[in-house]
């Protein structure tokens, strides 16, 4: 079947890892398994227009960001198309226009690679499904996650499900290094409406790209122990998520965030990605938690911003605390209120 011209539009969310992916092998295979919460508000919206063409020798595309030409994305997208060409043989028969926007502010320090790759892949899968209408839903989502992984590892956790495991783990049936596995059905009620308030401490460009970051784990003195620890932490997190054990969840999530940064501080070259305000915020969260008993915790990405995680039933109190005590440590008092979402959406 051929499709001559048309368009699709998908949104795909960002995600925040609880057990972190840091270090990879060939072909975007993670050095250890990870698990994340899918976000709801921070997302990329991508419209893909396709037009069948006569000369089917290579993929061709135009790139727009918020409706304006954006050539700086080209090398990354080209590399992605090269990697996925063998799985999507129809690609070279089309000319594409890829028009993208994010719901979060420019250079907010929130990475758009996961949401961006996920949104693009969903559109490509829609085209594949148009060409092969018998495609089963399960195949559609699995392949989408598989392809998103080839664009940006963590993007495979932004396709489908509220809680997603990526990477083979002995105790999690069906887990794979090649795609994300939705883990939602087993998650306790308390975690189903978790909130993530993202405090924008430093909105600058990332000091360390994730490609460089993952590379730092090659020959890292603590690499093997770290990879083993991630397996242990995933076992514990999995149990905490199923049992509704918020205390254990907090311990592991905060330890994972600090371990990610510890890996960067102990690699060669070494980096400190936290800012003084990151540490101020962490200390204030700890003080608030010990004084009130309210189960609020933090996690970090490979940057200075802080994700504040808490159940919805304490949201009013936590937001009061954030507004009165933490916003002063953010650039221009900026923050984003997000929460657990469900994955990519066909618009
Ligand atoms: O998907 P990448 O290659 O951008 O790596 C993401 C790495 C972290 O965000 C730091 C951790 C994670 O598991 O998402």
TrEMBL record:
Keywords: ATP-binding, Lipid biosynthesis, Lipid metabolism, Lyase, Nucleotide-binding. Residues 198-327 form the Mvd1 C-terminal domain. Pfam families: MDD_C (PF18376), MVD-like_N (PF22700). Residues 12-171 form the Diphosphomevalonate decarboxylase-like N-terminal domain. InterPro entries: GHMP_kinase_C_sf (IPR036554), Mev_decarb (IPR005935), MVD-like_N (IPR053859), Mvd1_C (IPR041431), Ribosomal_Su5_D2-typ_SF (IPR020568), Ribsml_uS5_D2-typ_fold_subgr (IPR014721). The keyword Lipid biosynthesis applies. PANTHER family: DIPHOSPHOMEVALONATE DECARBOXYLASE. This is Diphosphomevalonate decarboxylase. It comes from Flavobacterium arundinis.
């Amino acid at each position: 079947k051929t499709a001559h011209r048309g368009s699709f539009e998908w949104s795909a969310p960002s995600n925040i890892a609880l057990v972190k992916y840091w270090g990879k092998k060939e072909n975007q295979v993670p050095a250890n398994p990870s698990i994340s919460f899918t976000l709801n508000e921070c997302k990329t919206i991508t419209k893909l227009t396709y037009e069948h063409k006569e000369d089917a020798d290579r993929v061709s595309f135009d790139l727009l960001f918020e409706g304006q030409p954006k050539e700086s994305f080209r090398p990354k997208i080209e590399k992605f198309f090269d990697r996925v060409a063998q799985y999507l043989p129809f690609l070279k028969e089309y000319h594409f226009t890829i028009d993208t926007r994010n719901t979060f502010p420019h250079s907010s320090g929130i990475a758009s690679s996961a949401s961006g790759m996920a949104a693009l892949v969903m559109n490509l899968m829609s085209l594949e499904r148009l060409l092969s209408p018998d495609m089963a839903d399960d195949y559609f989502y699995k392949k989408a996650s598989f392809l998103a992984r080839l664009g940006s590892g963590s993007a495979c956790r932004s396709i489908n499900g509220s809680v997603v495991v990526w990477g083979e783990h002995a105790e999690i049936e069906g887990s794979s290094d090649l795609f994300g596995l939705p883990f939602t059905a087993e998650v306790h009620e308390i975690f189903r409406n978790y909130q993530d308030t993202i405090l924008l401490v430093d909105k600058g460009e990332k000091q360390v790209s994730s490609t460089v970051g993952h590379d730092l784990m090659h020959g890292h003195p603590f690499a093997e122990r770290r990879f083993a620890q991630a397996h242990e932490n995933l076992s514990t997190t999995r149990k905490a998520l199923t049992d509704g054990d918020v205390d254990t969840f907090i311990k592991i999530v905060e330890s994972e965030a600090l371990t990610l940064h510890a890996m960067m501080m102990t690699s060669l070259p070494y980096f400190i990605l936290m800012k003084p305000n990151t540490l101020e915020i962490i200390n204030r969260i700890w003080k608030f938690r010990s004084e009130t008993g309210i189960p609020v915790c933090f996690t970090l990405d490979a940057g200075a911003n802080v994700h504040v995680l808490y159940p919805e039933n304490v949201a009013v109190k936590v937001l009061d605390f954030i507004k009165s005590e933490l916003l002063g440590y953010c650039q221009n008092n900026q923050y984003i209120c997000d929460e657990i979402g469900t994955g990519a959406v066909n618009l």
